[in-house]
Amino acid sequence: MSGNPVDHENGSLETLETYQDWLNTLEQLRNENDLVALNQAYQNFSQEYFLPPEIWLQWINDERKRLLRQDLESANTRGLEVVERALNETLYSFEIWSLYLDLSVELFEYGKLSENVVRERFEQAVTQVALDFRDGWKIFEKYWDFEDKYGNKDNVSKLKLRCASLPFARYPEVLLEAADEEIRQRIARNQRKREERNKYEELISQLDISKEAEQIIEMESVVNTWKMYAEFETTVDLMRAKMIYERGLRSCYYVPDLWLLYLGFLTEYLPSSNLNTQVARKAFSCVPNSLEIAKYAMRSQERSDHGFHELSNIFWKAWSVMSMFPEHLVELSFSYLHCLRRLCADERLDKKYFSEILNDFQKTFDNDVLASADPNCQILRFIASCFQVVLKETLESIRNVWEQMLRKHGKLANTWLRYIQWEIHQQQYENARRLFRRGIHTLVEEVEILAQEWIGFEGLYGDISQYEKALKVTSERKTFCRRISKQPLPSSIANPLSSQREEYRNKSKRMKTKKEDSDNQIISSLSKSPRDSSFGARKWHKDVHTIFVSNLPKTTTEEEFQSLFQSVNGFLEARLVKDKEGVPKGFGYVEFQNDTGVLEALKADQSMFLGQKIIVKRSKPPKLQKSSTPSRRIGIGTGLRNDETEVFNVNEEESAKDLEESSTQATSQTSWTQDDFRRWIRESSLH
């Protein structure tokens, strides 16, 4: 048997993982005749899952069997309690209603229930299940038998007339053989209605026969059959239609389509909040992986009076089963937050608690797949709006949310425009102007959109100098972006010599132990050598994927330099070189993940940036002091010894000056040759 065992000593169940585990456990306890533990298992099972009528009937029979050891009265009393709970928590079941009436009559015979109470229960059953086309007549038959034996005999003829007035698949023999002409006429008038319903009942019978024969049945055909039957009853009797939907769900509990049809029917024709909430929770319990049902269950719970915690439980259970579908998580989260916002606005949810939930959601965007599935920042925009409108938080906390949007979706013009519009709404025009500048130097594909908006903004809020500056900067940036987009990378050098790099790595792995130790000692020496650089210590071989940018305006800020190549594929970081007083020297370095980004960035050479033509070239590796034995080559298989090798002592500040001087000279070579790459690979193999 799968699942966890039952703890007989403590009378409690360990956590079982699946629905089938619970069924197996119930069967085991039933075979062991441990009826006390079996009752506890049923209790726990009903708290974890929605139980179909079949399980409730087993529970009732097992409970009566357990209590029959004491006396029949106790067994029936306890059985009646479980039946009443089943009627509230499961779908339509003629069998449970029939058992409910039988137990009520037995308790009446023991003097535990009055005649009027039993009669009220019969009337309730007539309303709930006596409309069943297949079996409803059985309720009337039980009813008039009770009246004939214990109640008012005058009611018997009235009940027979009521039964004859309704269309059933068949009628009791006592009615078909009755001498009363009125009963005969009523049965005859129902003939057409019986024929109409028989068509649908025959279709359902065919489905049942196919299922018993273990034939493959398309679930779509099952749903359509019940849908047609229910839609027909909707035009005749709404309670019959409700019964048809619930009959159909008993054959396909785990099909979301039929649940959604039923929920739609209840919303349109029987808009009782309690009924809708109960059915929505039952649907969610059966199909927790359905996005639409989860959203419906949350909205239904929002309208109920059960409080926030039930709503939260639905959301987090749905979140756990939909975690593999990020696009579903976005829609689910959005629906949940809307429910909470309305609860907060209606003062049914504390604002402080609502703020904590929003902050938790905001944090999920840093490490969760939810961020990549929400390119339009719907959730973060909603959070920012709630901070502003509902919670009336400080502007700084709202800006933090917007900045988070830019970090995740800063390549979309729509994100920048929404943030800028918010700043304009706050009348923070300087902040909006700074965002325009940042956005222009970040976007590539959608730079035209933001450029047009910036010019319009300065035309409305700026003076002549600000307007002309916007025209100039946007024009330069658009030219730069067009140059990048019109010069695709040659396929032959998109990923240079990757196979040769791998070949050299494999050779390196086959080197002798002595040579490997020597290489490790050199690397260790390099890591310990002093570095004096304005932009921090780093291994020189990373310069393979680094460019040198010079002729920058001395007023360039770190933020503006960062945004210059931020949109290039593989961008890692940009470092603006400054003097001891923190004043930019007019040049800097930009590092990429691979050579693809370097080649793309080199196209920006001689382009305009903040009114000046910038120079973009490859960064040269630091100067290397060769070994004291010139006959030995630094590379693979040299086996350099510590006593004949000097540590590479790299002064990057000096190297940066050399690069600055060399960058002002014209050069016709913008890419490396195959020999250049081979030489670099040999020299970097030590690392």
UniProtKB/TrEMBL annotation:
Pfam families: HAT_PRP39_C (PF23241), HAT_PRP39_N (PF23240), RRM_1 (PF00076). One of its GO terms (cellular component) is nucleus. Residues 176-213 form a coiled coil. GO terms for biological process: mRNA processing; RNA splicing. CDD domains: RRM_SF. InterPro entries: HAT (IPR003107), HAT_PRP39_C (IPR059164), Nucleotide-bd_a/b_plait_sf (IPR012677), RBD_domain_sf (IPR035979), RRM_dom (IPR000504), TPR-like_helical_dom_sf (IPR011990). The keyword RNA-binding applies. It comes from the Eukaryota. GO terms for molecular function: RNA binding. This is RRM domain-containing protein. It comes from Galdieria partita. The lineage of its organism: Eukaryota, Rhodophyta, Bangiophyceae, Galdieriales, Galdieriaceae.
